User: Fold this.
Amino acid sequence: MRYDPVKNIIGRAVRNSVVLRKLLYKLLGLLFLREWYVKRELRRVFRLPDPPQSVMDAGSGFGQYTYFVATRFSGVKVYAVDVKAEQIDDCRAFFQKAGVRNVEFHVEDLTAMNHSERFDLILSVDVMEHIADDATVFRNFHRALKQGGVVLINTPSNLGGSDVHAPDDTSFIEEHARAGYGVDELRTKLESAGFMVERIVFSYGRWGSMAWRLGIKYPMLMLNATKLLFIVLPFYYIFVLPIVLPLMYLDYVSKNKTGTGLLVVAGKKKN
Assistant:
């Protein structure tokens, strides 16, 4: 199953409208459980006595996390990068139209980036599973953070993230460089890069995985079959959301012992 073609269609549909783009961000924030987890962690980090002032969004995509940070937290400056030039051009145009001025957008390859003690926080959401040379990226993140800085990573686990164990035509895994991370593997790689791992949280446990299939996977399967189903998609969600949202909430408030998603918080030591 291909995910990017559907994303590209949605991106083109909202490209020239600030209102539609903001609506897209609202919908992504509602339907994707990972956003619930990531935004909760961001709110926690920004409540610390010394909140971040400089943030890197490493793999900004549609720009929804960049927008959240830039507009939600005062005094912050965001440096957003993506390897895809069309995504960066699209985001840059939207942020200019929306009047959000505290953001820079740049095309960068995370395996080749060269920043030194520049950021207080690096955010990387569903990016590392696409990069084969993750060890280099983790070292680059560590070098780019100021002392005492924090990296926040969200990525699939190796316990079935993106339905890796599903048949080939129903899995997102063909777009990934790896099936997902094990907890010990991810901890070891981050510590090898110099980080102190503060916590690792499982998301998409029993309830969240059910919600993901109903709310994201099955609609994507339908849209991969024919784009005409965009017409009936709103009606599908009218019936499904009353089931999906409570399942997502159950996952969000649970302490999952396992799950198909991982959220990791790690820090750079102060000298």
The mean pLDDT is 90. The chain has nine helices and seven strands. The first helix runs from residue 4 to 14.
